[in-house]
Amino acid sequence: MDHSQYIIDKLEEARDERGMPIAELARRSGIHRKRLWYILNGERKLRADEFVRLIVVMGTPVTAYVPQEMMEALTWSRGGSGR
Predict the structure, then answer these.
(1) Which CATH superfamily is domain 3-77 in?
(2) What is the DSSP string of 13-67?
(3) Is 72 helix (H, G, I), strand (E, B) or coil?
(4) Are 58 and 14 contacting, i.e. CB atoms less than 8 angstroms apart?
(5) pLDDT recorded at residue 82
(6) Domain parsing of the chain, residue ranges
(7) Pick the residue with more confidence: 55 or 68?
(8) Which of 3-12, 21-30, 59-68 is predicted most confidently?
(9) How far is CA 76 from CA 49, 69, 72, 73, 82, in A?
(10) Is residue 83's pLDDT more than 50?
């Protein structure tokens, strides 16, 4: 799976868990509702600043958006210390 799609899927999962409509997420994050809809439907790219706004609004850690195999590979490449 494309990592961009993984992030979008996780954002949608977090939004669904909170029962938050797209319009409310857009309002809280300061992202135009239509733009957010296009992002979540894969029709527009998610910018880094938008990603940060969304995860802060939803209260999720950035690590929730990193696939486990990527996390393991990155941890291993740092020497396996996990720090």
Answers:
(1) lambda repressor-like DNA-binding domains (1.10.260.40)
(2) HHHHHHT--HHHHHHHHT--HHHHHHHHTTSSPPPHHHHHHHHHHHT--GGGGS-
(3) helix
(4) yes
(5) 47
(6) 3-77
(7) 55
(8) 21-30
(9) 28, 10, 6, 5, 8
(10) no
